[in-house]
Design goal:
This protein is mainly beta. It contains no helices and eleven strands. It is elongated.
Amino acid sequence: QVQLVESGGGLVQAGGSLRLSCAASGSIFRITSMAWYRQAPGKQRELVASITSGSSTNYPDSVTGRFTISRDNAKNTVYLQMNNLKPEDTAVYYCNIFAITRLGAFDSWGQGTQVTVSS
């Protein structure tokens, strides 16, 4: 089993920056994909950024050029640097990883961290 702990959310003014972190623990052999999603009130959860084991990244148009995903494989941690934040970025942000452990493969989610951007 894999546990994820997120940190870094908070309240920021429009144009500001935040950095989210998500650390994975457990009997992990290898983490393949890592990603960040977000869900605003009344909306579906949407992909914000993803990164493969080879560090290829993917972003939707809404955050391209403003958000950067990165990973530290030694620490089993994924980061999301968010710059030039906008009020429409307000949401609960969730990390998601796919990990291979001694007990099998797990698709795990973090508990979520609130990001609020004021105008």
